[in-house]
Amino acid sequence: MAAHRCSRSALLLILCGLTLFTAADSQETTVNGGHHASAVKNPQTSTETADQTTEQPAVEERRWEATEVEEATPDDAAADKQDSPVPETVVLTSVPQPKDDFQEELVIRPLHSGDIYASFQFRTVWETDFTRGNKVSHYRLFPKSLGQVISKFSVRELHISFTQGYWRTMQWGQPFQPAPPGAELWVWFQDSVTDVDSTWKELTNVLSGIFCASLNFIDSTNTVQPSASFKPLGIGNVTDHRFLRYATLPREIVCTENLTPWKKLLPCGSKAGLAVLLKSEKLFHSSFHSQAVHIRPMCQDWECKTTSWELRQTLNVVFDLHTSAQGKREWSLFKMFSRTLTEACPLASSSKIYIDITDNPEGEQFEVSPATPLLSQASVLGDRRTFSVYDLTQQITFGTVRSLNLLIRWKSSEGDMLRPLLHGERYVAGYGLQTGEIHTLMYNYHPYRSFPVLLLDSVPWYLRLYIHTLTVTSKGKDNKPSYIHYQPSKDRVRPHLLEMLVQLPPNSVTEVTVQFERALLKWTEYTPDPNHGFYVGSSVISSLVPSIVAMDTNSTRERPLFSSFFPCKEESSYFVRVYTEPLLVNLPTPDFSMPYNVICLTCTVVAVGYGSLYNLLTRSFQIEEPNPGLAKRIANVIRKMRGVPPL
Amino acid sequence: AAADAAVMPSLKTLRGQLAALSIAAVVILIGVPLWWRTTETYRAWLPVSQIQELANLQLQLSADVEVVFARGTVTPEQQKKVPLTLTQDDEHVVDGDLRTTICDLMVTKYEGCKVSNVLNSFVSRGHSVEADLSLHTLSESPCGSLVVYVIPESSSLLPEDVDVYVGQRRTALLRIGAQTRVGRTLEQLLSHLEPRVKQVLQVMSFSHTDITAALSDRVRLSPGNKESIADSMRAFKSSPGYEITFSLLNPDPKSHRLHWDIEGAVQTYIQPLLRKLAPLANFSIDSQTLYYAMLGVNPRFDSSRSAYTLNSDSLAHVINPVEARLGSNAASSNPVLNFLLYVPDAHHSPLHINDHKKQEVPSNAFHSPRWGGIMVYNVNDFYGPEAAFPVDINIDMAKVMGVFLAQLRLLLGVQSSAPPPRFLVAPCSSAGIADWELDRLMWSRSVENIATATTTITSLAQLLDQIGNIVINDNIAQQVSSAVTSLQLAVAELESGNLRFALQYSKEAILASERAFFDPSLLHLLYFPDDQKFAIYIPLFLPMCVPILLSLLKIVSDARQRRREKHAKAD
Fold first, then answer.
1. Which region is the signal sequence (chain B) (predicted)?
2. Residue B523 sits at the chain A interface (C-beta within 8 Å)
3. Residues contacting residue A92 through CB under 8 Å, at least 6 positions apart
4. Do residue B514 and residue A596 have CB atoms under 8 angstroms apart?
5. Last-in-domain residue among B467, B482, B504
6. Which residues contact A393 (CB under 8 A, 6 or more apart)?
7. Are residues A571 and A603 in the same domain?
8. Largest CA distance in chain B
9. Edge-to-edge strands of the sheet including A366-369?
10. What are phi and psi of A483, to 5 degrees?
11. How far apart are CA B12 and CA B18, in angstroms?
12. In this structure, are B402 and B270 located in the same domain?
């Protein structure tokens, strides 16, 4: 009976094994099916899978046919306006004034560390109105894809940046366009939008497709509505921050696939003009790379009678002395970009290269060749800078070799950089996996002026901030913020938002600390590599810093593009935005095979308990004759052979 | 005592057996239903039987045809005897496997000489276009119906070699044949008219081939007929909306500064057509200018003509590099019709397209099925002797839009087969499309929409049937049933000949069915299949079920043994 039972259970086990195997097989197929289904999810591709198969031959059979127009159609249509005969194609004598304008610009600033900072700006200004009801549908220089996005989602302002690397303010000074590491997106919607959240969700999905980035991961858990830090940069004094959305993805990796769609938005593409320099293998072999798109409505004239839309595409890159130049302090366009310039973009109304020579008035620091007689002065970031200008629309710039290869050769490595007046840092303190403390340091290097700064912190919900532990100290004393806007987080719904206005005393460090507790995530909420840690986006410090020189407040005057990004309201100060480092925080991470182990263990315990109980209930126990021992049995066998009765 | 000893263990085993049985009962009666209920996926009710009914796709199209006899075609006595309506059935089985049946139903209404006086006044003047217009104003025929005016043989309304005149509206003039003069019997007259009215109907509303083409997704076409396949695949598939994009490609902005008044041209040439097509679909138009956009092939220089040529076999490679820059509409997912105007660069100009016979294509344009059209616009004639680059060039939009309009008609499926001999088709109006052409398109689009929506709904039902893990939420069930209702309504409207409503319902059906099919909630539980669940359950179920099963087996074998013993005792 026992043997019987044994063979039965063995059979069952084998059966189970078989089901497991087949189960694994079918699992594979269903997973494939799932992928397939997600691939067809996009309704644009096809209506259904059945359709796809039948459509296949259609693609192969695609034929090109000459168009026959012997139909009377066009003639008839033309005949309708017979009275005003359409003129034959003629060389125009009066050219219609285009309503759009394109400018391109490159600023090169040699940095004191020996690195070199190159900042590209491309600006398309289009005199049209996206805000009113009329549908904008005919595009010339403005890219169609972005225009459609603006008009469909009723966007007033859109700022998006993709950055790889961290801008080192203390070594490099202030950048022309600051950007945090990773991706940043902030959008002001028009006040006609009723459901801002769903529009924002759709917009991020569309932008994610346009820029080939993971912006679709922007959801309510990383979106905030800052109340003061992000004001519109264009016209319109909308201050209702219900129409503002701000999100960062500090983890976003920026690479070639983001650069290609960005270049496609330029009217000349990468075929002519300054954009030929944008070769990805050089651009991404650098210490810092940041590309951005800014769209905003602008005033066309001083009285702001006509408005226009400005699309500004910027690309900032810092080339490293040691990796790119092999340690030699010598730079040229060819060395930086492996290209030289031969022409301006024919569509550009202005195409210029600026080289910052402020620290080099007599050429004792570095030497620029070919030399240019054109000099220009601009007040930028609170300083008056001098630039040599190369105008690419002039044929003389390219000289006899018909190509421009700017060369910067350093003579001495001395010299001191003007220290930036505002600087920020951030780090996580504490030990263990339960609590921690975020420290944000803000430096005011101004020798005698104090100025207020706005600090914006957006912290994910899984770091639970203890807001009662918030302290702001400068010079060892408590510094009470004059304005605090705090929005607590909701688990899995929205992040913490902390905004405050702090007065920074002259020549001081202000430290903001707040303690937090790390939350336990659900096991599906962990990223694929949870032991890498979780990113917390940069803090944003925005401020009007007192300026040493008088700033230019006329926003409509012709100025170099790099100095006209942030509008200046008063002469005595200029706007600066500083981003701190993003944080990388470790969260308590479980062993991910644990759930299955726990299930197995529990089940085994239950089975053992149940089994013994079951046996107790169903078995009948009786005393059995003790088995004769082994020796006795052997003795019996021997006795049997001998014919003696057994024991 | 011996009997007691025999009873005692049997009582004990009985107790054990009872315990095993009650545990098994608890497991089966409480445990299994509890487990089943708690791990069930939510599946809303779907109208499966109705979907299966629809899958057969039995369509009945019926068109009202009104036949009006002009004076001089029938005698007054005959006129009184003319039957008021005549219904004709014509059944086609499009595909036996799918049981797709199309049943044309032609309702012919004969009407007396109500309008013959008006007609006769035109007969005397002999102007068919005017006749067509005023006849239309006389009897406003609804969408999808036809009026055929039968005029006497001697009428001078039509030219000598023309028997049938197809007007711009929903009217046709039919000249009565020579063999049916006045004095023949009415039956002869009607039997003579019948095939010819049918022919008119095939030109003006729908024919078997149209419907087959509209059903090309469901029906496998016979491979031999390549021409008809090409015809049926040229037009875009039916969709609730289309994006029309005009792109001006300027590969050489250094030499050409191009100006095109696209806004005005769209208003003048494209909008009238689209306004006419509005019941069919929503159209949105935009345009862009692309600089440095090159074609994918290098044109060959033909020294005999001192021009560059593109051969027809290389046209297939022209688009690919351009297409990457055209961009799709970021804000909608409707199909895009691309129309490209290519101005060749100064060094490759003039550029001509050659057809298969190495002949220059007069329009210098070509189109690609279900994609769009390209036109090459040569500007080298306007360089002038001094040729100061860049040259400002104003593009002649009338010429360009003529080509694009013809291509647009083809791609939307407006243009159809050539009319049969002795037919005269009126020239297009300013809208670029005649009423009956629109009707024709609406017939085939309704059928196509119904077929597509049915396929979508059927495959969704099959999918949901096959994969039991998919959660069917209430909103999906609602979409499915609204799609089914719209489909049924569309089929019913087709049957009764209300073309406009049929199209409307078929569009609603498509929208609802696609929304149900592509709902993201259908994907959620696909990744949590049965086998994974069982992998987790087995550690619990196996040790629990094995003792129960074994003890049940033991009980059964004990019972059997006891019975055998009883038998043995009885013997």
1. none
2. yes
3. B259, B392, B393, B394
4. no
5. B467
6. A344, A348, A350, A351
7. no
8. 138
9. A330-332, A407-410, A366-369
10. -150, 130
11. 10
12. yes
| Number of structural domains in chain B | 3
* Prior bond of A110 cis (ω within 30°): no
B202 and B263 both lie in a single domain: no
Could you tell me if A505 and A603 lie in one domain? no
Average pLDDT estimate for B112-133: 48
ipTM, two decimals, is: 0.77
CA angle (B61 as vertex; B58, B67 as ends), nearest 5: 155
Hey, is A480 helix, strand or coil?
A: coil
Q: What is the mean pLDDT of residues A186-195?
A: 90
Min Cα separation B402/chain A (Å)? 4
Averaged over A127-148, what is the pLDDT? Answer: 78
Task: Report yes or no on B441 lying in a domain.
Answer: yes
Tell which residue, B59, B24, B27, has the closest CA to residue B496. Answer: B59
Q: A220-265: per-residue pLDDT in tens?
A: 999 999 998 898 888 766 678 889 999 999 999 999 999 999 999 9
- What is the secondary structure of A81-104 as a DSSP string? TTTSPPPPP-B-SSPPPPSEEEEE
Residue B289 to chain A, least CA–CA distance (Å): 5
Instruction: Examine the domain organization and report whether B180 and B107 are in the same domain.
Output: yes
Asked if B531 and A87 come within 8 Å (Cβ–Cβ), the reply is no
Q: With respect to residue B47, please indicate whether it lies within any of the assigned structural domains.
A: no
Q: Considering A282, A303, A332, which residue would you say is the last residue of a domain? A: A332
Domain of residue B129: give its range. Answer: 59-235+416-467
pLDDT exceeds cutoff 80 at B128:
no
Select from A301, A342, A328 the least CA-distant residue to A558: A301
Which of chain B's residues have a Cβ under 8 Å away from the Cβ of A8? 550, 553
Q: Cβ neighbours of residue B510 under 8 Å, at least 6 residues apart?
A: B238, B240, B449, B452, B453, B456
Q: Does residue B175 form part of some domain?
A: yes
3-state DSSP helix/strand/coil percent for chain A, to nearest 5?
25, 30, 45
- Same domain for B445 and B371, yes or no, is no
- DSSP-derived pairing of the beta strands A65-66 and B365-368: antiparallel
Residue B92 located in a structural domain: yes
Q: Which of A10-24, A120-134, A304-318, B43-57 has the lowest mean pLDDT?
A: A10-24
Domain of A266 in residue numbering reads as: 114-332
- Domain-ending residue, one of A332, A355, A387: A332
- Summary mean pLDDT of chain A: 80
| Residues B228, B296 within the same domain | no
A611 and A512 in a single domain? The answer is no
The Cα–Cα gap between A482 and A501 comes to 6
Selected residues 592-621 of chain A with any CB under 8 Å from a CB in chain B: 596, 599-600, 603-604, 606-608, 610-611, 614-615, 617-620
Whether residues B308 and B355 fall in one domain: yes
